[in-house]
Amino acid sequence: MAVKITSLCINCGSCIDECPAMAIVSADDAPVDTDVTYVRPEKCIECEGSDPRCASSCPSEGAIVWDLPYIVEYNDYYVDGHNKGVYKIRENKKGETLFPAVSPKPFQESVSITKRKTHTSVIE
Ligand code: SF4
Ligand code: SF4
Prior knowledge:
The protein is α+β, with helices and mostly antiparallel strands. It has one domain: Alpha-Beta Plaits (2-Layer Sandwich), CATH 3.30.70.20. The chain has 4 helices and 4 strands. The strands form 2 sheets. A two-stranded antiparallel sheet has the order 1-4.
């Protein structure tokens, strides 16, 4: 990731259409057990710098927060989240799960790791 959607989401759906990476799906379409809209971390490209399109369109402050970069350094974090059902990372045609070690994604270096680890709201 990327960004993550929290329980403050009101399921308005605005962010789904805004995402250029088609990384966001409704709760009904989410691959995990959730009541709110879901971001697929393996697809999020952290668009638009520190002002991503999903957060710009979101009416609920705190619904979209920063998550750790989707890079090999944080592979274990996403493997653990996948195993615990926080995320459900897709597989490619070879049957490999698209963890960061297999398919890293761009991230914004200007956003601190502290903000990411504490899941700070994108819109502050
Ligand atoms: S940051 Fe951009 S790419 Fe990532 S989920 Fe939000 S809109 Fe999609
Ligand atoms: S725009 Fe915000 S409130 Fe609406 S579905 Fe997305 S995260 Fe939830």
